[in-house]
Write a structure and sequence with these properties.
It is built from eleven helices and two strands, in the order H-H-E-E-H-H-H-H-H-H-H-H-H. By secondary structure, it is mostly helical. It has one domain. Strand 1 and strand 2 form a beta hairpin.
């Protein structure tokens, strides 16, 4: 049943031009622009090539776009249009509907990240050490699950479809800039770096950067980053279980 629901949700994603652009095309555009603008000089605290820094950084953005951003916008729109209410009225269990939508978000996030890795490899010569592939897979998967939980939690605070995208951008864009996704945050004030450490974007990006670092040994898994992502997933899941509604918020009471 979950696979059937996943197939339906995945086809709905593929047929939505706006979702395809913001989830698939935009991260690729960011990667091309940032590498093109900043060239391939050494950046970041470990002084790696710019392309080696931006591929995992923009990959973190892709994971967030595929899981958090896309899920918040689509779920809010479906809730306000009554689609979620009609789905809930079917014999399909609620957990199957949620699991299918979550699986879609995770698969899309990992697929877009894979595309970015291939572009980085063949267009910019970025090499991912073979022994750190488990680190990339584990970090991206845990990150996608965490941001799916946070996405469901955030939908409970958004009242209508028009507010979904501005709310998502207001929440996530500042974190991109202070978390090392677009630019290394080593030159930021200490207090701002401390703020970034609290939120999951920093830990997703750091985990992927660590796996791509040529000096990394072992599987490339940073367990402290994984732990923070798991804590945020648990918090998001708790809020979602407490406040999630299948009906438009205006009439939920």
């Amino acid at each position: 049943m979950i696979v059937h629901q996943f197939r339906y949700d995945f086809l709905a994603f593929l047929r939505n031009p706006q979702s395809r652009f913001f989830t698939v095309a935009l991260p690729i555009i960011f990667l091309v622009i940032f590498v093109g603008v900043f060239g391939n000089h050494r950046v970041g605290p470990n002084l790696v090539k710019a392309s080696t820094y931006y591929v995992p950084g923009i990959s973190a953005l892709a994971v967030i776009a595929g899981s958090f951003v896309n899920l918040v916008i689509s779920v809010t729109a479906q809730r306000q249009s009554g689609v979620l209410k009609r789905r809930r009225a079917t014999p399909v269990p609620a957990w199957v509907l949620i699991a299918g939508r979550t699986l879609t978000a995770i698969v899309v996030a990992l697929a877009v990240m894979t595309i970015l890795l291939l572009i980085g490899r063949f267009a910019y010569g970025v090499k991912l050490p073979t022994h750190t592939i488990p680190g990339v897979v584990v970090t991206a998967t845990v990150g996608a699950i965490s941001f799916c939980c946070l996405g469901y939690a955030l939908t409970t605070a958004i009242k209508n479809e028009d507010a979904a995208q501005p709310t998502v951008q207001a929440v996530i864009l500042p974190l991109y800039f202070i978390s090392g996704v677009f630019i290394p945050n080593v030159n930021l004030p200490t207090w701002l770096r401390d703020v970034a450490q609290v939120f999951p974007v920093q830990h997703l990006a750091d985990g992927l950067h660590h796996a791509f670092d040529p000096a990394t040994h072992g599987a490339g898994i940073v367990w402290s980053d994984i732990g923070v992502l798991v804590l945020w997933a648990a918090a998001g899941l708790a809020v979602a279980l407490w406040r999630f509604t299948w009906t438009p918020i205006a009439s939920a009471a």
